[in-house]
């Protein structure tokens, strides 16, 4: 193998590891339904930020209403704006980030989910200024296909805290039963 190529490859791999960082979070989601019902459920996230690739990849384990499931998404970041696609392709969206690039302090986004029977709009706010926690608030609006108007069906407030990978994986196994 060419020594110059090997040196370039090592430099490239080293640079990639500097740009990509994975963080693990464990916390709780408080869901308030439109009828006033309130539930508290575990909520965990692994987030990999790769400034060189301009991406943020997340895997979220949360209660889907029929048990805990893991959903993955990728955000493509350009400047302070991003677009997001969930791995299933069902949920897409976009938003804006506030603060120093890759050290943001606030996120506001709007996501859309569409099926044959309904569509949902999710307005999401994430508060990222405190390095010891992330707080978020989401409003979920439902539109039944063929029925005019949308209805606020639930709100979700999330607070998560950084943990090490072992604690995250233990909680992930507990929630998903794997």
Distance between the termini: 42 Å
Question: How do the SSEs run, as a string of H and E?
Answer: HEEEEEEEEEEH
Strand order of the largest sheet: 1-2-3-4-5-6-7-8-9-10
The CATH architecture assignment turns out to be Beta Barrel
Radius of gyration: 19 Å
Strand content: over 45%
**Largest sheet report:** 10 strands, antiparallel, barrel
Helical amount among residues, as a percent range? 10-25%
Q: What is the chains' assembly state?
A: single chain
What is the number of beta strands?
A: 10
How does the overall form come out from the CA principal axes? globular
Q: Low-confidence parts, pLDDT < 50 over ≥5 residues?
A: 3-17
CATH class: Mainly Beta
Mean pLDDT across the residues is: 89
* Count of helix runs: 2
The CATH topology label is Lipocalin
How does the helix and strand content classify structurally? alpha+beta
Q: CATH superfamily, please?
A: Calycin beta-barrel core domain
Structural domains: how many: 1
Task: Write a compact overview of the structure shown.
By secondary structure, the chain is an alpha+beta fold.
Describe this structure as you would to a colleague.
This protein is of the alpha+beta class and 178 residues long. It has one domain (20-176): Lipocalin (Beta Barrel). Helices cover 16% and strands 61% of the residues. It has two helices and ten strands; from the N terminus they run H-E-E-E-E-E-E-E-E-E-E-H. Strands 1-2-3-4-5-6-7-8-9-10 form a ten-stranded antiparallel β-barrel. A hairpin with a 4-residue loop joins strand 5 (81-86) and strand 6. The longest helix is centred in the first third of the chain and has 17 residues, at 3-19. The chain is globular, with a radius of gyration of 19 Å.
């Amino acid at each position: 193998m060419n020594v110059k190529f090997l040196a370039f490859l090592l430099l490239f791999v080293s640079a990639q590891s500097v740009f990509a960082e994975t963080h693990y979070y464990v916390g709780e989601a408080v869901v308030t339904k439109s009828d006033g019902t309130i539930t508290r459920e575990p909520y965990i996230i692994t987030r990999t930020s790769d400034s060189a690739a301009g991406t943020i990849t997340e895997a979220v384990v949360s209660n889907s209403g029929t048990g805990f499931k893991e959903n993955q998404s990728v955000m493509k970041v350009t400047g302070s704006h991003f677009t997001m696609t969930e791995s299933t392709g069902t949920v897409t969206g976009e938003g804006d980030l506030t603060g120093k690039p890759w050290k943001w302090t606030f996120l506001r986004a709007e996501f859309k989910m569409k099926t044959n029977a309904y569509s949902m709009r999710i307005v999401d706010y994430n508060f990222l200024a405190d390095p010891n926690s992330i707080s978020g608030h989401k409003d979920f609006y439902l539109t039944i296909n063929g029925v005019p108007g949308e209805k606020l069906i639930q709100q979700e407030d999330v607070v998560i805290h950084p943990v090490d990978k072992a604690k995250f994986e233990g909680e992930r196994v507990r929630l998903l039963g794997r």
